[in-house]
Amino acid sequence: MNLSYELSIWEILLRCFLAILFGGIVGYERGVKNQAAGIRTYLLVCLGTCVVMMTNQFITSRYGIGDHSRMGSKVISGLGLQVAGTIMV
């Protein structure tokens, strides 16, 4: 994967739109089945993850520091914390 370029505004908007679309599809399916996390939860999680990963891509391509998978692993840890909070409530 070549990360030596910066994303244009259209690429950023497309990625955010796709994250919202797919998160909405999964959230809607869960909402119809009356499960704990619904459409709003999945929309926010997918959009937040998309923004974090684009930030990671920007930092590694601009400054050449860091690891491509480090921020992604932190997102997974944060989601684990969110799921644990959902289970406890």
Q: Describe it for me?
A:
This protein is mainly alpha-helical. The protein has one domain (9-88). It contains 3 helices and no strands. The protein has helices at residues 9-32, 39-63, 70-88. α1 (9-32) packs antiparallel against α2. The mean pLDDT is 84.
Mean pLDDT: 84
**Number of helices, counting only DSSP H or I runs of 4 residues or more:** 3
Radius of gyration: 15 Å
Helix-strand topology string: HHH
Number of domains: 1
Query: What would the principal axes of the Cα set say about the shape?
Result: flat
Flag low-confidence runs: none
Distance between the termini: 41 Å
> Can you summarize the main beta sheet?
none
The secondary-structure class comes to mainly alpha
Name the assembly state. Answer: single chain
- Helicity range: over 70%
Question: How many strand elements?
Answer: 0
Strand content: under 5%
Family: Belongs to the MgtC/SapB family.
Protein name: MgtC/SapB family protein
Domain MgtC/SapB/SrpB/YhiD N-terminal: 17-88
Subcellular location: Cell membrane
Keywords for this structure?
89 residues; mainly alpha; 0% strand; flat
